[in-house]
Design a protein that fits this description.
With about 300 residues, the chain is an alpha+beta fold. It has helices at about 1-55, 110-115, 120-130; strands at about 60, 70-75, 100-110, 135-150, 160-170, 180-185, 190, 200, 205-225, 225-235, 250-270. It is elongated and about 120 Å long. The N and C termini lie far apart (about 100 Å).
Amino acid sequence: MQVDTLAAHTVLWGSSLWRDIMQRRTRIGMAACMAAAAVCWVGCAAIDQTINSERMTRPLLDFATVNAGATIKSAGSSGERTAESLINGVKDSAKWSEGEGWEYTWTLGGEQQRNRRNEERGIAGIMARGGPWVVITFDEPKRINQIVIHEANAHDAPAVGIENAFLQVRDLRSERHPWKTVATVQSGWALIPGRQQFKMKPVSKFLFNTVKTDQVRIIINTMLEKKRTTIERQQANRQPDDRRPDRRADTRRVDKAATMTLRLMEIEVKGSEADLSNGASNVGTASGGSEKKSAMKEPM
């Protein structure tokens, strides 16, 4: 009887000891796992911080320069200030008096607009109506995420502000619709999908997701400052009405037009050859967090 009781106590003591050992092993194992996780988290955070630090300190390259192999085409120029000046690296408006910068004057409305009423619409129509535009071509496809427009802002060439414009990149994957809009300017405000809109300044920086492209184009529709003109023309009635002798044989037509002048110093198109940005898309629209996100409409 005593032997059985001793055996029973031995079994209970052994079981308790085993449970205690297992619990301690479990606690030791959990502690080891937590320690390993902490080390992993610290290591990953350090690596991520290093990568972000490298990205932040990595200088962006301006691909829209002659030295980088870029070329430019434009709608033309007014006088001797050609668009080639936009890719020579000179951004200082003080150089305007020395002949730097691009100047372009055009007129919207009036008889010219009436005669073009049935022509192309949308961006193609804007370009056909004689507004300023430039196309910058790189020597090879580049990864870009920033376009900077430098408007002349000197005593003899004050900044007047861009009112409406389109910023586009060429889609390397599409032949039917090659141009994709990454930003617009509407009523003097820059609109980029997914980002906070901002008011245009003499130097305006457009940031968007990294895209891979070989061409960028900027189309200006209107400026904030306009010289408005009204022209009255005498126009003969094509079909005089004999039943209304009081009707004049000719009538007056009033044509309203607006003349605008664009003055730019430089256009920068920036990116990093080594910045894959988790895989740069061939082309795409911009995105990002903001308090107020903008909507952007592109004319057909």
